[in-house]
Amino acid sequence: MTPVLKRLGSFVVSIYRCVRIGELCVCEIFEELNVEQANTSQHLAVMKKQDILQSRKEGLKAIYSIKYPEIIESWMFWGKYLSNRLMKI
């Protein structure tokens, strides 16, 4: 696995871990992950396009949450699986 794919997978899992507890705005997510807002926003947009997340506007803020609660169980499994695989690389 290339370093880019490794980083992307890790980043997506990190975003998931942030929003699985409920709604968060982009600013809360990028602060939690300690990355640039633009980078976080791009990943959130991809996850929204893939129908994983939903968003709503609250003033100027974009608030994200998991679109389907069933995704949480699946992501818990795949998050553990990917984390284990990435550590072996």
UniProtKB/TrEMBL annotation:
DNA-binding found in the keyword field: yes
A Pfam family recorded for this sequence: HTH_5
Keywords: DNA-binding, Transcription, Transcription regulation
Stored CDD domains: HTH_ARSR
HTH arsR-type domain ranges (all copies): 1-89
InterPro entries xref list: ArsR-like_HTH, HTH_ArsR_DNA-bd_dom, Metal_resp_trans_reg, WH-like_DNA-bd_sf, WH_DNA-bd_sf
Gene Ontology molecular-function annotations: DNA binding; DNA-binding transcription factor activity
Domain of life where this protein originates: Bacteria
Keyword Transcription regulation (UniProt): yes
TM regions (residue ranges): none
Matching SUPFAM superfamilies: Winged helix' DNA-binding domain
Protein name: HTH arsR-type domain-containing protein
Annotated source species: Desulforamulus hydrothermalis Lam5 = DSM 18033
